[in-house]
Amino acid sequence: MRRPPRRMGSADVLWLNMDRPTNLMVIVSVVLLESVPDWDRVLDLMRTRILEPYPVFSQRPVRPRRTLGRYHWEDDPDFDLTRHVHRATLSGKGTAAEADAELQAYIEEYLPHPFDRSRPLWEVHLVDGHGSGAALVFRIHHALADGIALTRVLLGLTEDAAGVPGDLVGPPAETDLPTMPLGADASSGAIGSGVRLVLASARSGWDHLRAKGARATVTGAAGLTLRTGQVVSDLLLTTNPASAVGGVPGQRKRLVWTQPLPLPGLKQVGRLVGATLNDVLMSAVAGALHAYQDEHGRAPVDLVTMVPVNVRPLDEPLPRELGNRFALVFLRFPSRDATPLGRLALSKARMDWLKASPEAALTFALISTIGRFPAGIERRVVDFFADKAIGVTTNVAGPRDVRHLAGVPVTGVLGWVPGSGRHTVGFCIITYDDAVRIGIMADESVLPDPEALLAALEDEVALLVRIGAAGPTSRKRKRRRS
Asked: Which DSSP string do the residues of 379-391 spell out, in sequence order?
């Protein structure tokens, strides 16, 4: 029985209309498996845990018939799961790094391919021969949902050791920008709701300050006002300087990723300056960008990235309609600084500033609003803000324990959100099973050698771990043991 058409959210319309040949609005996710599962069982899981609970995976977008009409989703009358599933077999040979390179090359071939909009906007590749294991590669259009929601959907295919299914995705432990518990009117998308969102945030700050007394009220209110003014100024005036990773993007993208990196050593170096794990990981990316610029004969400069901030409650089930509920903030990587601890201290300071600022609230209101503009205006507004950054950097915490998919252990999870405008390089950071993997998606015409950037990133992580191991906390522990 066909469902009635469903109106598309304004933020979803925005991402639907932002497709262009140089930057498709497609989220890429990879689930790595220890061995080859029974593929019929995998397909059955997809039917029962993705297609049935989330109707948008069997629906297609429909353009409005009138100029001021609204986009909507409608059931694909000829939906067939097999149209969205591709099967492939790799060689299964070589080292872990060589197996990854073969899988990366396979995924890269599909990255420039846009979806047929007469069908649901997603596909999955069931890939045998990733070493002795396998991989599930998902390509899903951003119009269906944001990256956090899609990560939860895909991890919903998995089970824990006791066989209990669930996504178990949350903000990275002791790390990320806080999620934003926004009210219902925050998702309406009208300019008036955006104003109400900012005013509500300000009122909440005032109420908190009043409880601390008159002096705190005056001092804190002045600080809140200054922060809001600074954020507006930053949003309008931030520029991304010319650099070795800047340029005009082409259609082809490259993918590389690290092997699993243990978390304890990274947390240890963070304790030296009171930094979170997220601060450490961001400083590691900054260090890689510093080294890459220097190696390519350019004076290192601070580079700007866009960081998504989840606004969806993580302790509640995902809504059946999914959709996009996230904000974006600008983070200036301290990629000019030449010292690891200097980069770490600056990463912490800049992340602390973002956590205390209303930038996420302002950009969430903006994203919800511009999805109601005509497509041409949407593009101009998005390009104005997107061109202030080199790309997008995401940080997602997966399950802390090993999960299983169709009875096979999951050995790793990766995922990239797309860039827009003139974005050329993005990073994905995903923690899983007490380890972290960092992936890079780079524009081939601007960064033809992402392996060099990956090597610089791995070197920077190793250096930070050595610094942490040599720090005062480690020496105290050694003395206690002796």
From this structure: HHHHHHHHTTSS-
Give me the amino acid identity at 356.
A
Integer-rounded Cα radius of gyration of the chain: 22
Kindly list the strands in the beta sheet with 72-75, ordered across the sheet, starting from the edge strand earlier in the chain.
6-7, 72-75, 59-62
DSSP 52-66: TT-GGGGEEEE--SS
Alpha-carbon distances of 304 from 307, 350, 351, 479, rounded to whole Å:
10, 12, 13, 42
Q: Determine the pLDDT at residue 183.
A: 36
pLDDT digits (tens, 9 = 90+) for 22-56: 999 999 999 999 999 999 999 999 999 999 999 99
**CATH fold for domain 6-155:** Chloramphenicol Acetyltransferase (3.30.559)
DSSP calls for 127-170: EEEETTEEEEEEEEETTTB-HHHHHHHHHTT-B-TTS-B----B
Whether residue 424 contacts residue 390, with contact meaning beta carbons closer than 8 Å, is answered with yes
Rounded Cα gap, residues 82 and 75, in angstroms: 16
CATH topology of domain 184-191+237-400+418-475: Chloramphenicol Acetyltransferase (3.30.559)
Structure tokens at 163: 């066989």
The CA dihedral of 169, 174, 176, 178, to the nearest 10 degrees, is: 90
Say how far apart CA 127 and CA 153 lie, in whole Å.
Answer: 20
pLDDT in tens, 406-420: 999 999 999 998 988
Domain with CATH 3.30.559.30 in the chain: 184-191+237-400+418-475
Neighbours of 39 (CB within 10 A): 15
